[in-house]
Amino acid sequence: MATTADTTPTTVSGNAGETPFFTPQRIRQFGIGGAVVLVIALVVWFAITAGKRKEAFAARELEVGRSQAEQGNLAGAVQQFDKVAKSYAGTAAAFDATLGIAQARLVNGQNELAIGSLQDFLKTTPPATYASPANSLLGTAYENTGKFAEAAAAYRKAADLATLDYLKSTALLDQGRALREAGKKDEAVAVYREIISKYGETAGKTEAQIRLAELTAGQS
Q1: In angstroms, rounded to a whole number, what is the distance separating the alpha carbons of residues 82 and 100?
Q2: What does pTM read for this prediction?
Q3: Domain ranges of the chain
Q4: How many CB atoms lie within 10 A of CB 215?
Q5: What confidence tens digit (pLDDT) does each residue in 140-193 have?
Q6: CATH architecture designation of domain 111-220
Q7: Which of 19, 85, 101, 212 places its Cα 20 to 30 Å from the Cα of 52?
Q8: Torsion (CA) 64, 66, 70, 75 in degrees, nearest 10
Protein backbone atom coordinates (compact mmCIF):
# COMPACT_ATOMS: atom_id res chain seq x y z
CA MET A 1 0.00 0.00 0.00
CA ALA A 2 1.52 3.39 -1.03
CA THR A 3 2.16 5.98 1.63
CA THR A 4 0.44 9.32 0.98
CA ALA A 5 2.89 12.25 1.08
CA ASP A 6 2.14 15.09 3.52
CA THR A 7 1.44 18.06 1.30
CA THR A 8 0.53 20.48 4.10
CA PRO A 9 2.33 23.80 3.29
CA THR A 10 4.90 25.07 5.79
CA THR A 11 3.78 28.22 7.64
CA VAL A 12 5.98 31.20 6.77
CA SER A 13 6.57 33.93 9.35
CA GLY A 14 5.25 37.38 8.39
CA ASN A 15 8.77 38.92 8.93
CA ALA A 16 10.59 36.48 6.69
CA GLY A 17 10.31 38.78 3.70
CA GLU A 18 11.72 41.89 5.48
CA THR A 19 15.36 42.98 5.12
CA PRO A 20 17.28 42.87 8.44
CA PHE A 21 18.27 46.33 9.74
CA PHE A 22 21.87 45.36 10.45
CA THR A 23 22.86 44.32 6.95
CA PRO A 24 26.57 43.91 6.16
CA GLN A 25 26.44 47.17 4.20
CA ARG A 26 24.92 49.10 7.11
CA ILE A 27 27.39 47.58 9.53
CA ARG A 28 30.23 48.80 7.32
CA GLN A 29 28.65 52.27 7.12
CA PHE A 30 28.32 52.44 10.89
CA GLY A 31 31.89 51.33 11.26
CA ILE A 32 33.14 54.02 8.89
CA GLY A 33 31.00 56.67 10.60
CA GLY A 34 32.29 55.68 14.01
CA ALA A 35 35.87 55.82 12.79
CA VAL A 36 35.32 59.31 11.38
CA VAL A 37 33.86 60.54 14.68
CA LEU A 38 36.80 59.02 16.54
CA VAL A 39 39.32 60.70 14.23
CA ILE A 40 37.61 64.08 14.65
CA ALA A 41 37.58 63.68 18.43
CA LEU A 42 41.26 62.78 18.41
CA VAL A 43 42.11 65.79 16.23
CA VAL A 44 40.20 68.14 18.55
CA TRP A 45 41.84 66.61 21.61
CA PHE A 46 45.28 66.89 20.06
CA ALA A 47 44.68 70.51 19.04
CA ILE A 48 43.55 71.46 22.55
CA THR A 49 46.44 69.60 24.19
CA ALA A 50 48.99 71.04 21.76
CA GLY A 51 47.60 74.54 22.32
CA LYS A 52 47.95 74.19 26.07
CA ARG A 53 51.51 72.92 25.73
CA LYS A 54 52.36 75.80 23.40
CA GLU A 55 50.96 78.34 25.89
CA ALA A 56 52.90 76.72 28.73
CA PHE A 57 56.19 76.70 26.80
CA ALA A 58 55.65 80.30 25.69
CA ALA A 59 54.92 81.43 29.25
CA ARG A 60 58.15 79.87 30.51
CA GLU A 61 60.18 81.51 27.75
CA LEU A 62 58.50 84.84 28.48
CA GLU A 63 59.55 84.65 32.12
CA VAL A 64 63.16 84.20 31.01
CA GLY A 65 62.95 87.50 29.15
CA ARG A 66 61.29 89.25 32.06
CA SER A 67 64.00 87.99 34.39
CA GLN A 68 66.68 89.39 32.09
CA ALA A 69 64.90 92.75 31.97
CA GLU A 70 64.69 92.88 35.77
CA GLN A 71 68.43 92.22 35.95
CA GLY A 72 69.07 95.15 33.63
CA ASN A 73 70.03 93.03 30.63
CA LEU A 74 67.69 94.83 28.26
CA ALA A 75 69.47 93.68 25.09
CA GLY A 76 69.13 90.07 26.18
CA ALA A 77 65.52 90.66 27.19
CA VAL A 78 64.65 92.07 23.77
CA GLN A 79 66.29 89.11 22.07
CA GLN A 80 64.34 86.68 24.27
CA PHE A 81 61.06 88.55 23.81
CA ASP A 82 61.57 88.54 20.05
CA LYS A 83 62.10 84.78 20.17
CA VAL A 84 58.84 84.30 22.07
CA ALA A 85 56.90 86.60 19.76
CA LYS A 86 58.05 84.74 16.65
CA SER A 87 58.10 81.17 17.94
CA TYR A 88 54.79 81.28 19.77
CA ALA A 89 52.76 83.69 17.65
CA GLY A 90 49.14 83.94 18.66
CA THR A 91 49.68 83.06 22.32
CA ALA A 92 49.16 85.44 25.22
CA ALA A 93 52.87 85.22 25.96
CA ALA A 94 53.70 86.32 22.41
CA PHE A 95 51.51 89.40 22.79
CA ASP A 96 53.14 90.20 26.13
CA ALA A 97 56.56 89.68 24.61
CA THR A 98 55.83 92.22 21.88
CA LEU A 99 54.86 94.77 24.51
CA GLY A 100 58.00 93.84 26.45
CA ILE A 101 60.15 94.65 23.42
CA ALA A 102 58.60 98.10 23.16
CA GLN A 103 59.03 98.77 26.87
CA ALA A 104 62.69 97.78 26.77
CA ARG A 105 63.30 100.04 23.79
CA LEU A 106 61.61 102.96 25.52
CA VAL A 107 63.83 102.48 28.56
CA ASN A 108 66.85 102.45 26.25
CA GLY A 109 65.69 105.64 24.56
CA GLN A 110 65.07 103.83 21.28
CA ASN A 111 61.80 105.62 20.68
CA GLU A 112 61.73 105.34 16.89
CA LEU A 113 62.31 101.61 17.06
CA ALA A 114 59.54 101.34 19.62
CA ILE A 115 57.18 103.34 17.41
CA GLY A 116 57.89 101.14 14.41
CA SER A 117 57.41 97.86 16.26
CA LEU A 118 54.22 99.04 17.96
CA GLN A 119 52.73 100.29 14.71
CA ASP A 120 53.45 96.93 13.08
CA PHE A 121 51.93 95.12 16.05
CA LEU A 122 48.76 97.19 15.98
CA LYS A 123 48.33 96.49 12.26
CA THR A 124 47.79 92.83 13.18
CA THR A 125 44.65 93.86 15.14
CA PRO A 126 45.57 92.19 18.44
CA PRO A 127 42.91 91.70 21.16
CA ALA A 128 41.85 94.86 22.97
CA THR A 129 43.60 93.76 26.16
CA TYR A 130 46.90 94.08 24.27
CA ALA A 131 46.00 96.77 21.77
CA SER A 132 45.14 99.21 24.57
CA PRO A 133 48.53 99.07 26.34
CA ALA A 134 50.26 99.01 22.96
CA ASN A 135 48.62 102.34 22.12
CA SER A 136 49.63 103.71 25.52
CA LEU A 137 53.25 102.75 24.86
CA LEU A 138 52.98 104.28 21.40
CA GLY A 139 51.72 107.49 22.98
CA THR A 140 54.72 107.51 25.34
CA ALA A 141 57.12 107.03 22.43
CA TYR A 142 55.47 109.89 20.53
CA GLU A 143 55.70 112.15 23.58
CA ASN A 144 59.37 111.32 23.99
CA THR A 145 59.97 112.49 20.42
CA GLY A 146 57.91 115.66 20.79
CA LYS A 147 55.01 114.42 18.66
CA PHE A 148 52.32 115.47 21.11
CA ALA A 149 49.33 115.48 18.75
CA GLU A 150 50.14 111.92 17.67
CA ALA A 151 50.62 110.96 21.31
CA ALA A 152 47.20 112.35 22.21
CA ALA A 153 45.57 110.31 19.44
CA ALA A 154 47.32 107.13 20.59
CA TYR A 155 46.23 107.68 24.18
CA ARG A 156 42.64 108.19 23.05
CA LYS A 157 42.73 104.84 21.26
CA ALA A 158 44.16 103.26 24.39
CA ALA A 159 41.29 104.68 26.42
CA ASP A 160 38.67 103.52 23.92
CA LEU A 161 40.07 99.99 23.91
CA ALA A 162 40.62 99.69 27.67
CA THR A 163 38.27 97.25 29.36
CA LEU A 164 38.38 98.72 32.87
CA ASP A 165 37.40 102.21 34.02
CA TYR A 166 40.64 102.93 35.87
CA LEU A 167 42.60 102.06 32.73
CA LYS A 168 40.39 104.35 30.68
CA SER A 169 40.85 107.25 33.10
CA THR A 170 44.62 106.71 33.17
CA ALA A 171 44.85 106.79 29.38
CA LEU A 172 42.66 109.90 29.27
CA LEU A 173 44.89 111.65 31.79
CA ASP A 174 47.80 110.88 29.47
CA GLN A 175 45.80 112.24 26.56
CA GLY A 176 45.05 115.44 28.48
CA ARG A 177 48.74 115.93 29.21
CA ALA A 178 49.69 115.40 25.57
CA LEU A 179 47.02 117.85 24.43
CA ARG A 180 48.35 120.45 26.83
CA GLU A 181 51.84 119.93 25.46
CA ALA A 182 50.44 120.28 21.96
CA GLY A 183 48.89 123.62 22.90
CA LYS A 184 45.33 122.32 22.56
CA LYS A 185 43.90 123.74 25.77
CA ASP A 186 40.22 123.44 24.93
CA GLU A 187 40.55 119.81 23.94
CA ALA A 188 42.46 119.07 27.13
CA VAL A 189 39.72 120.73 29.19
CA ALA A 190 37.14 118.52 27.48
CA VAL A 191 39.12 115.39 28.28
CA TYR A 192 39.48 116.29 31.97
CA ARG A 193 35.75 116.99 32.20
CA GLU A 194 35.09 113.63 30.56
CA ILE A 195 37.15 111.90 33.23
CA ILE A 196 35.28 113.66 36.03
CA SER A 197 31.84 112.94 34.58
CA LYS A 198 32.36 109.38 33.37
CA TYR A 199 35.04 107.98 35.66
CA GLY A 200 34.43 109.80 38.91
CA GLU A 201 34.83 106.59 40.87
CA THR A 202 38.45 106.17 39.78
CA ALA A 203 41.59 107.68 41.27
CA GLY A 204 42.02 109.69 38.08
CA LYS A 205 39.21 112.03 39.06
CA THR A 206 41.33 113.95 41.58
CA GLU A 207 44.15 114.62 39.13
CA ALA A 208 41.64 115.57 36.44
CA GLN A 209 40.10 118.14 38.79
CA ILE A 210 43.52 119.58 39.56
CA ARG A 211 44.51 119.84 35.89
CA LEU A 212 41.14 121.28 34.97
CA ALA A 213 41.46 123.95 37.66
CA GLU A 214 44.90 124.86 36.33
CA LEU A 215 43.54 125.30 32.80
CA THR A 216 40.40 127.18 33.75
CA ALA A 217 41.76 129.27 36.63
CA GLY A 218 39.52 127.37 39.03
CA GLN A 219 36.38 127.84 36.94
CA SER A 220 35.72 124.19 36.14
Answers
A1: 9
A2: 0.73
A3: 38-108, 111-220
A4: 18
A5: 999 999 999 999 999 999 999 999 999 999 999 999 999 999 999 999 999 999
A6: Alpha Horseshoe (1.25)
A7: 101
A8: 80
